[in-house]
Amino acid sequence: MDSTAGKDTTVDFSLYGGAESFAEGRSPRRTVVNTPSADDNGVSYPGPPQDPSDFLWLMTEEPHRTRRMAIIKAHPEVTKLMGHEPLTKWIVMSVVALQLFFAYALRHTSPLSVVFLFCAYAVGGTANHNLFLAIHEITHNLAFKGVKANKALAIFANIPIGIPYAASFKRYHIEHHKHLGEDGIDTDVPTRFELLCLNNVLGKTFFATFQILFYALRPGFVRTQKLTAWHYANIATQLVVDYILLKTLGGKALTYLVMSSFFAGSLHPCAGHFIAEHYVWDGLDQETYSYYGPLNILAYNVGYHNEHHDFPSVPWTRLPALRKLAPEFYDTIPSHPSWPMVIVNFIRDDEIGMFSRVKRKDKGIPRDQANATCKPTDGDEKCHVDEVK
Question: Which PANTHER family would you find in this protein's record (predicted)?
Answer without folding.
Answer: SPHINGOLIPID DELTA 4 DESATURASE/C-4 HYDROXYLASE PROTEIN DES2, SPHINGOLIPID DELTA(4)-DESATURASE DES1
